[in-house]
Amino acid sequence: MTQIILASSSETRKALLNRLHLDYLAISPDIDESAKPHETAEQLAQRLSYEKALKIANHHPDAIVIGSDQVAYLTESPQQFIGKPYTEQGAIAQLQQQSGKVLHFATGLSVQCINQQFEHTCVVPFQAKFRELSNNEIQRYVSLDQPLHCAGSFKGESLGISLFEWLKGDDYTALMGLPMIQLCSILRKLDIQIP
Questions:
Q1: HSE of 80 in the Cβ direction (CA atoms, 13 Å)?
Q2: H or E segment to which residue 168 belongs
Q3: 93-98 mean pLDDT
Q4: 3, 113, 114, 179 - which has most CB atoms within 10 Å?
Q5: Which secondary-structure segment (H or E) carries 187?
Q6: What positions does UniProt annotate as the active site of this protein (predicted)?
Q7: Contact criterion met (CB below 8 Å) for 118 and 112
Q8: Pairing of strands 102-113, 77-82
Q9: pLDDT tens digits for 128-151?
Q10: CATH number, domain containing residue 169
């Protein structure tokens, strides 16, 4: 059976891929994730997911390699990408900035297998509208969920769901960083049985 490799060290992406009951390895691609001048969120997410998968695929040409990357931005500032806060203070500041606003996500996905001459890269969009959040709600949320390694400072699969008015998109898992509906469709093209 063909080896499957997730080009990521993200625990969230591993948890999502675990849903498929596939044997896989996770290898961090360790690439420069800096945006290029004038690159849109969609372009950046697509390029980084492609580069992550390609870096690992070059070392494992027989394997099916999955790369993914997510870029977030607010409607009013599409060139200002929102990253991971890393600290509680950073998470509080992000949520204060996002309160009452729509956060857009561009989640890139790239599946590559060099020996099969296969490459499929796409971007799955998703939107999340925050409620008007009080400072007490924000501080309580950050303390309870510790979303310090999540772009936008929330965990949609956890208590973070309570922060929103609505979510919009074709694939809820794109919000969490790995678009599973698209991934399943691509893996089936490579004769991976799901389910």
A1: 9
A2: strand 164-168
A3: 98
A4: 179
A5: helix 180-189
A6: 69
A7: yes
A8: unpaired
A9: 999 999 999 999 999 999 999 999
A10: 3.90.950.10
> What residue has token string 């070392």?
59
Tracing tokens 């991971």 back to the chain, one arrives at 84
Residue 1 is predicted with a pLDDT of 81
Q: Dig out the tokens for 131 from the structure.
A: 């409620």
Q: Which amino acid is at 76?
A: E
The DSSP bridge partners found for residue 153 are none
Q: Is 140 a domain residue?
A: yes
Tokens of 79: 């060139």
Cα–Cα separations (whole angstroms), residue 138 to 85, 88, 123: 14, 10, 30
Number of structural domains, the chain? 1
**For residue 195, is it within any domain?**
no
Nearest to 173 by CA among 110, 107, 119, 111: 107
Active site residues: 69
Crossing angle of the two packed helices 135-145 and 88-98, in degrees rounded to 10: 140
